[in-house]
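Posting here for the record, re: magnesium ion.
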Amino acid sequence: MNKTIAFIDDKPTIGKILKTYLEEDGNRLLYFENAPSAIEWLDQGNRPALIITDMRMPLMSGDEFLAFLKSNPLYKPIPVVILSSAESTDERIRAFEAGADDYIVKPFNPLELKARIKKYL
Ligand SMILES: [Mg+2]
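Prediction output follows.
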């Protein structure tokens, strides 16, 4: 209860939809439009229970963001769920090998996402 989820996607509309579903249980969803702004927030000492990140984003891709998180001992323990618009086996394998905990293809059902991330909250 009352866990913070950091959500990073260059499209704010998805953030608004997820906020509605994921905050129903008393959790908090913090939306970031790009990975660098989420990193800035993490660098201030904030620790979310979970990071959900888009793959295709300007400034820093989901791949690069995931690699950054998993190479930093401070951020490595935070579970990361990848949201991707590509149903690509190669990308999926790459994400899991880079340390992603789950991989969800867009468009997705918010209720399914909610069920899948429950174990991290
Ligand atoms: Mg995108």
